[in-house]
Each structure stands twice: as C-alpha cells, then as structure tokens.
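Deliverable D2.4 — example input (structure tokens):
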C-alpha cells in the first residue's frame, strides 16, 4: 500500500505535455528522476530493514515459544512415566492381593464353589 502511494507520488512529479518537454530542456526532469531514484532506493532499504527486523522479532518469539513447548513436552513425558509406574505398582499390588486371597481360601479349605444343598 505504502509502496504504491510512494510510486504514484514520484510519478506525479514528472509532467507530461509541453511542461514535460520544458523540464527536459531545462534539465529539471533529470533532477526529478534523480530525486525519484534516491527516494525509491531509500524506500527499498527502509522496507528491507523493516522486514529484517520483523523477521528477527518473529525468530526470537518462536524461539521463546519453542522453549515453552519443549518444557511442556518434558513435563508431559515425566507425568506419563509417573503414571505408568503407578499403574504397574497398582497392578502388582492387585495381583499380590488376589494371590494372597487365593492362598487364604485354599488354606482354610474354602472353595469358590458354593454348596447349594446346605
């Protein structure tokens, strides 16, 4: 948007018709073209530097975000490992409790089958 407006402003400095011919003869057209070229180059370098600053700011922001993403990922991995260890502990405890219960039943002569005739 700004580029187009600046180009139009520079183009409007060069006159057409008889006034344009007069400017060519007096050398004013050459001075206007030189000024236009200087302004165009300054605009180009300004825009290039602005793009570079924007790029660097985005890289810096992305780096900070990536650190946060990595930290959250590490916390999630640690939490999954804790949960996995807890599940294993509960399953071992449950298996051991079932085995103890079965030993108790066998040692007391109880059966899982119910005697319906009693």
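Example output (designed residues):
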């Amino acid at each position: 948007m700004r580029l187009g407006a600046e180009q139009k402003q520079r183009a409007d400095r060069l006159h057409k018709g008889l006034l344009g011919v007069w400017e060519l003869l007096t050398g004013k057209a050459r001075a206007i073209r030189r000024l236009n070229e200087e302004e165009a180059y300054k605009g180009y370098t300004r825009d290039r530097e602005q793009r570079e600053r924007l790029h660097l700011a985005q890289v810096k922001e992305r780096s900070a975000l990536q650190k946060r993403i990595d930290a959250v990922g590490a916390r999630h991995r640690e939490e999954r490992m804790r949960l996995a260890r807890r599940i294993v502990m509960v399953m071992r405890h449950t298996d051991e409790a079932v085995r103890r219960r079965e030993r108790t039943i066998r040692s007391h002569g109880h059966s899982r089958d119910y005697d319906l005739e009693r």
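Residues 2-107 form one domain.
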